[in-house]
């Protein structure tokens, strides 16, 4: 007969969490490790160590934080129930005397989730909440219970004198008992008997019942004076209020449950609140085609904005603060350059940084600049560039919405600076988009209903400010998704859905998808009866939050799919502009890269939108001439790329600037100016505005200046001249904007929220290692003398070890060994020796499921396995 079976053949109830885990199959253990990845860091040696780790405070807190509201309410009810509690007792605490069919139907799912995550173990007749979770959720004066219930009568009377307890028993109309324990039990029996309790409360004064009504839903503690009023004395004399400290009383848990009708919670929430459509009527729904077109337009604007930011920083961006990040002044300047508000500018800057397009150059005069990856990025198709930005935003833990706020030390949080990482940000972003994906196509959500749904799914997040952060992250996600073009008019676009890895919606299951996600599989070895498995239609698996594609390959595929969806919606780049007589050019859409690059040098952007307006000025034309273009080149370029004739004023402007360009030459001595026309030099010397340049004549055609060549060039240009720089050989220097690039940089790595979720390969290897280690630690052994304590290695002399191993080779029996590897790590193993020679034993290792060779001197001891 197995040790796990009763004489009648039934499986014995597990006596510990380790035994409950041992009864699970590999799929169930893998589900536990996937739900609680901290348990696998590092991999436990056996199931006993896994159970111990699952009961540590840090791990339990993390597991409780990832429960949804109803699963957490179930755990809270178990914390105030008996230990152990039956399923029927738990059901009574959740549904109350009147019963609640919805709660009763959803409860099996919540219990199954708690079991799967190893927070609850045991059968339906003996449900046990792990001790650490019970301590965290149980009521105390320092940490009131979330249920609002106080201590039991037994707990509240633990320090009370026997005489006082007998007085309470007598006042309640109960016969006296022999000891305090039986007296507390008699009071408990009275308070849990509905009929007798109703009769007792019927005798209470109205003021006393009013006091009970104020305490019934918590907090259960109240203050009384040394000489309480008559109605309070009536409650104190009958144990309906019990003293806990001088001047403090508490409402016993049993009394509160009677007044509540048996409910542990005032309101239970078995079904998540639905995400409602936006609009005053709650029926706003747009055309999916309009949503996609709007989102695609915004995606194009997002690309243009990021490109403009990178162009603005192309020759070297703002300086890096000593503490890191952008200064407030530089952020304002960037916002003006992009024509957006400062929070939106911070978003674009952080997005470019997350995508690896900008970084610090790391030089002595440290500044921000574009990275080499930017040059590769800008040459890619527009849809691919957008997918890169959107994918980086979705996975980033840096949170632009925090810019301008204060950290824990009351320091201002700067864009691109430290302190902006929030590890929960990617999860919130994906979940918000998943909720949008569950709505019918083209429907925008009511933001408040999204926040309510998120609060239901993650009700316990530590301090209040952390919960507030999740709400703010959700609001920022809705705003940023619209800016980026993931959504259009508030609804998720088709390319946004592809980026998330969500399936296309179907009318038949829109409503069901709005409510939740697939069911959680039963936990083998710890199952509920069949009649307990019903669940409300469409209710989500407790604690389940879709997180999108997990591995990099899947996410890359999702980005590619999003780019394919977006590409047909983006306008095709144009190879022409429309020249106007007012010295402007209108680009009716995005321009091809070569045309846009030349036009950016030849003209200044005057306005943006669906069409971009460029203005030609003497300074912009001179800029093109400085870059090495001739007047004939500019005339040919404009004629080739304009759908309208080149206006005469523009042709005159180009010729006039070209005629004067280079007439003055500026070179390096300190600096000098030379010109073949001495009248021009006389004019410059006579101009009072040139005083700051401190010019003096060296020759009829040469002026010297006490300024560097760059300052002299800018000064003469400010006076209305068109000087050209020349080299030491007297040749005109062609000046092009030098693109400043940082050394190769990798994008910032997201800061994970705890250990990463293990993949299937790691889970399978971990489960196999834990099983093998558990086999080695629990296998019955023939050990002479005193057996080693649990977890200790067997100890035998070298001669005994060699003799036992050689005998096992002849008999083919398996052995239990203790082994210390080259790194000093000790482990227990079950091996079947095959050969012993040269100080090594070759054996089939049941722990590793392979043949291995072990040095005999590293084996601490051996023991034969018992026959059964």
Automatic annotation (TrEMBL):
GO terms for molecular function: DNA binding. Residues 800-862 form the WYL domain. Residues 577-699 form the Helicase XPB/Ssl2 N-terminal domain. Residues 535-559 have a biased composition (Low complexity). Residues 137-157, 261-288, 496-559, 774-796 are annotated as: Disordered. It comes from the Bacteria. Pfam families: Helicase_C_3 (PF13625), WYL (PF13280). Keywords: DNA-binding. Coiled coil: none annotated. This is DNA-binding protein. It comes from Streptomyces longwoodensis.
């Amino acid at each position: 007969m197995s040790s796990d079976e009763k004489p009648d053949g039934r499986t014995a109830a597990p006596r510990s969490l380790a035994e409950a885990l041992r009864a699970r199959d590999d799929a169930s253990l893998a589900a536990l490790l996937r739900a609680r990845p901290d348990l696998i860091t590092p991999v436990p040696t056996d199931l006993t160590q896994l159970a111990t780790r699952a009961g540590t405070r840090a791990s339990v807190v993390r597991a409780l934080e990832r429960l949804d509201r109803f699963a957490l309410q179930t755990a809270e009810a178990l914390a105030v129930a008996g230990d152990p509690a039956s399923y029927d007792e738990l059901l009574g605490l959740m549904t109350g005397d009147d019963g609640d069919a919805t709660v009763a139907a959803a409860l099996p799912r919540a219990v199954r989730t708690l079991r799967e995550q190893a927070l609850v173990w045991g059968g339906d007749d003996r449900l046990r909440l792990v001790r650490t979770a019970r301590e965290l959720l149980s009521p105390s004066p320092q940490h009131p219970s979330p249920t609002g219930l106080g201590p039991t009568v037994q707990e509240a009377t633990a320090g009370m004198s026997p005489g006082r307890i007998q007085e309470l028993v007598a006042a309640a109309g109960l016969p006296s008992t022999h000891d305090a324990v039986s007296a507390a039990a008699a009071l408990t029996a009275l308070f849990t008997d509905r009929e007798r309790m109703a009769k007792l409360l019927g005798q209470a004064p109205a003021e006393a019942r009013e006091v009970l009504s104020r305490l019934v839903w918590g907090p259960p503690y109240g203050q009384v004076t040394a000489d309480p009023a008559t109605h309070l004395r009536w409650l104190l004399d009958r144990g309906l209020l019990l003293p806990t400290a001088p001047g403090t009383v508490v409402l016993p848990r049993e009394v509160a449950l009677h007044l509540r009708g048996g409910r542990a919670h005032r309101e239970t929430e078995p079904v998540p609140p639905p995400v409602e459509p936006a609009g005053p009527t709650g029926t706003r729904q747009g055309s999916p085609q309009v949503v996609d077109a709007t989102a695609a337009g915004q995606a194009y604007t997002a690309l243009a904005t990021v490109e403009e930011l990178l162009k603005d920083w192309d020759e070297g961006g703002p300086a890096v603060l000593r503490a890191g990040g952008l200064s407030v002044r530089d952020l304002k300047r960037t916002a003006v350059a992009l024509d957006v508000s400062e929070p939106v500018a911070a978003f674009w800057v952080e997005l470019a940084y997350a995508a690896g397009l900008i970084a610090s150059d790391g030089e002595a005069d440290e500044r921000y600049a574009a990275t080499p990856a930017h040059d590769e990025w800008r040459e890619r198709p527009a849809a691919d560039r957008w997918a890169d930005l959107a994918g980086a935003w979705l996975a980033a833990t840096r949170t632009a919405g925090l810019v301008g706020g204060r950290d824990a030390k009351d320091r201002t949080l700067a864009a691109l600076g430290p302190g902006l990482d929030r590890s929960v940000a990617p999860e919130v972003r994906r979940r918000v988009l998943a909720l949008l994906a569950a709505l019918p196509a083209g429907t925008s959500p009511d933001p408040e209903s999204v926040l309510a749904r998120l609060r239901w799914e993650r009700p316990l997040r530590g301090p209040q400010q952390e919960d507030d952060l999740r709400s703010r992250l959700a609001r920022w996600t809705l705003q940023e998704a619209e800016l980026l073009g993931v959504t259009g008019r508030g609804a998720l676009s088709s390319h946004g859905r592809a980026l998330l890895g969500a399936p296309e919606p179907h009318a038949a299951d829109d409503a069901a998808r709005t409510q939740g996600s697939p069911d959680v599989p039963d936990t083998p070895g710890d199952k509920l009866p069949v009649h307990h498995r019903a669940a409300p239609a469409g209710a989500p698996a407790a604690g389940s939050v879709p997180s999108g594609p997990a591995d990099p390959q899947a996410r890359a595929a999702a980005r590619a799919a999003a780019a394919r969806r977006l590409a047909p919606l983006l306008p095709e780049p144009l190879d022409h502009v429309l020249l106007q007589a007012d010295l402007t050019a209108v680009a009716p859409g995005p321009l091809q890269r070569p045309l846009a690059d030349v036009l950016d040098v030849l003209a200044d952007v005057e306005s943006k939108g669906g069409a971009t307006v460029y203005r030609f000025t003497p300074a912009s034309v001179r800029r093109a001439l400085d870059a090495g273009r001739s007047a004939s080149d500019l005339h040919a370029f404009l004629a080739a790329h304009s759908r309208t004739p080149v206006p005469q004023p523009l042709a005159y402007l180009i010729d006039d600037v070209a005629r004067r360009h280079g007439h003055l030459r500026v070179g390096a001595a300190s600096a000098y100016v030379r010109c073949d026309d001495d009248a021009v030099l006389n004019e410059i010397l006579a101009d009072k505005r040139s005083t700051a340049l401190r010019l003096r004549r060296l020759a009829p055609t040469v002026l010297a200046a006490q300024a560097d060549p760059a300052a002299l060039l800018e000064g003469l240009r400010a006076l209305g001249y068109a000087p050209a720089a020349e080299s030491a050989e007297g040749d005109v220097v062609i000046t092009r904007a030098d693109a400043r690039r940082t050394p190769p940089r990798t994008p910032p790595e997201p800061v994970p929220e705890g250990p990463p979720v293990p993949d299937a390969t790691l889970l399978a290897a971990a489960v196999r290692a834990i099983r093998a280690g558990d086999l080695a630690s629990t296998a019955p052994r023939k050990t002479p003398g005193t057996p080693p304590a649990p977890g200790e290695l067997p100890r035998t002399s070298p001669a005994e070890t060699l003799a036992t191993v050689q005998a096992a080779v002849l008999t083919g029996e398996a052995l239990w060994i203790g082994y210390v590897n080259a790194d000093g790590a000790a482990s227990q193993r079950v091996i079947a020796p095959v050969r012993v020679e040269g100080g090594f034993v070759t054996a089939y290792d049941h722990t590793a499921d392979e043949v291995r060779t072990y040095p005999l001197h590293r084996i601490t001891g051996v023991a034969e396995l018992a026959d059964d």
